[in-house]
Structure formats: C-alpha cells, structure tokens
Specification:
By secondary structure, the protein is α/β, with parallel strands linked by helices. It has 11 helices and 11 strands.
Length: 306
C-alpha cells in the first residue's frame, strides 16, 4: 500500500475538480492518496506502453518543460511514455497526477510502486474513481482515460501505434473541446503510425520546443518561469565528439535502423567486414554515451535529450 494521506472526494464536495463535473459519466466520488489539491487542470501526456527511446525521450522532455513552469502533468502511470512523464515531473519537483484503472490499493503496474510513492512525496496524487481494493479490469482503463482527458486542459500524445488505447483519450479530449497535441514520428516507424494519423486528422503538431511553448502559453496563459541548469557541453569520455560528428548518430536521428540496415547504408565505405566492425564500434560508443538505445524491435534509435 502507498504511504500518504487518503481522501474520498464526493462529487458535491468543494475538493472535487470542476473540470471533471462535465466528463462523460462524472464519477460520484474520487479516491485519492496524496495531495487532493494536485487535482487541477494540467497537461495530459500519454503514449505507447512499448515505447521507443524517441517516445520516452519526448515524453520526458515536454513533461519536464511544462512541469518547470508550474503545469500539473496528468497521465495513467503505465509503462513507457506515461511513466516517463511522471518521472520528469517528479524530477522537476512539480505536482503530477496518476489516474489508475483499478483502486489505489491495487497498483497497476505493480512494479511502479516506487514511482507512485515518489509522486505522492513530491506533492502529487494517485487517484481513482473505484473503491480502494478494486482489482483492475481491462475495461476500466478505457473508462479511466475520460478522467485523464477531463482533468487536462490540453493532451499531448508523444507516440502511438495502430491500434492504440491512446486514441480513446484523444477522442474523449476532442469531444470535450480540449486541444490535442501530437509529436510527429518517422513515417517508417510502426510506433508512430497512430500519432501521425492523428496529425492527418487535424491534431496540432508539436515539431520543436518553440511550438510546444506556444501551445502551453495559449492553453495556460502566462506561466511561472524557473531557471534550468544548463547541461555541460564537454561530455564525458569523448561523448561530445560522438554527438557532434557521428555519421551513425546522424543516420539514426533520421529514423531507427537495425545493424544490418546501417551496414547497407554505409556499404560504400569498404568491405562488409570492415563496415560491420565500424558500425559496431560506433553504436557501442553512442550507446555508452546515452545517445542511442535499442527499440523493442531490436533497431537502434537516437535518444531524445532535454
């Protein structure tokens, strides 16, 4: 069980979030562990559970930028993009809200207990519309998504394949007139087909930090600004040179590629054995520097950094 203050918030009570009164089938009550005042309109950040390094990096990057400006991050606590969004908010010492599918005493996924506890410790909240000991069932997660969308003033989708449960949150947000933002992905990536489809259907693209800041200003108005420590430029163990001049990194920044595809891409550099050896050397260096990582399908992909 999670440690923290516990609340049962009735729909008619003063602590019940005003934005949740207008969702489809407003919950009669909310069960909350942590800070009930964290349940304010914020930015929902959602995406794939089996996320790529690109998806996880974007979730962390934009969640941190919003959290540093006082915006509450709302998500579902799932593996992948959701978890990265919560971690980024906690790292920014900001409030974040986790809406669970089941009761707050039946954590899912169970391995995220430490993450959920850190959310509470940072002034955030774990919330559910179900009684404390309710076991999560598959249908509950889709129903939970209406609460994520309802508490959000805007919804950011960082990665979604097809089919994807992420669409239910986007649909709920659109029905309530909320802004749906989407980070584009490579057209060759199965993990971005859903998010790119949402862009085709009219969602707002977030193509860089500036467009994200513009959308946050439009949704939330004048934001609290905090100084963010700049990362050192020198790097460690030659990472700066890998970042600045790595041809393999440049290729992976454009799209995820397997080792075999990288060998084919650079075949003109020499014999197959020589190219393969060079590719192995470059990927080992880039991975050690945290610049690339393997996707669930085994391909290499560049890591999005804040």
């Amino acid at each position: 069980m999670l440690e923290g203050d516990r609340f049962v918030i009735e729909r008619e009570g003063p602590l019940f979030p005003e934005s949740l009164r207008s969702v489809r089938r407003p919950p009669r009550r909310l069960f909350v562990v942590g800070n009930p005042h964290a349940l304010e309109e914020g930015l929902a950040v959602i995406g794939a559970r089996h996320a790529t390094p690109y998806g996880r990096g974007c979730a962390a990057r934009f969640s941190r930028k919003a959290a540093e400006r006082g915006i509450v991050i709302v998500s579902g606590g799932a593996r992948g993009c959701d978890a990265e969004a919560h971690r980024a908010a906690v790292g920014a010492r900001s409030k974040t809200v986790v809406f669970l599918g089941g009761g707050c005493d039946r954590l899912y996924p169970s391995e995220h207990r430490a993450l959920f506890q850190s959310v509470i410790d940072a002034g955030g909240a774990i919330a559910s519309e179900h009684e404390w000991g309710t076991e999560p069932r598959p249908y509950m997660f889709r129903e939970r998504n209406r609460l994520i969308a309802g508490l959000a003033r805007a919804v950011l989708i960082v990665e979604a394949g097809m089919p994807s449960g992420t669409f239910s949150t986007a649909d709920e947000a659109l029905e309530m007139g909320k802004t749906v933002l989407v980070v584009p992905g490579a057209i060759t990536s199965a993990y971005s087909r859903g998010s790119n489809r949402l862009l085709y259907d009219g969602a707002v693209p977030v193509i860089d930090d500036e467009t994200f800041e513009d959308q946050m200003a439009a949704a939330f108005g004048l934001l609290r600004s905090e100084a963010v420590a700049a990362e050192g430029e020198g790097g460690v163990g030659g990472c700066a040179s890998v970042r600045d001049g790595g041809e393999v990194l440049d290729a992976l920044s454009a799209e995820p590629l397997s080792s075999e595809e990288l060998c084919a891409r650079f075949a003109s550099r020499g014999s197959f054995d020589r190219v393969r050896s060079w590719i192995m050397e470059e990927t080992v260096k880039a991975e050690a520097c945290g610049l690339i990582a393997r996707q669930p399908d085994g391909r290499w992909a560049a890591v999005v950094r804040g």
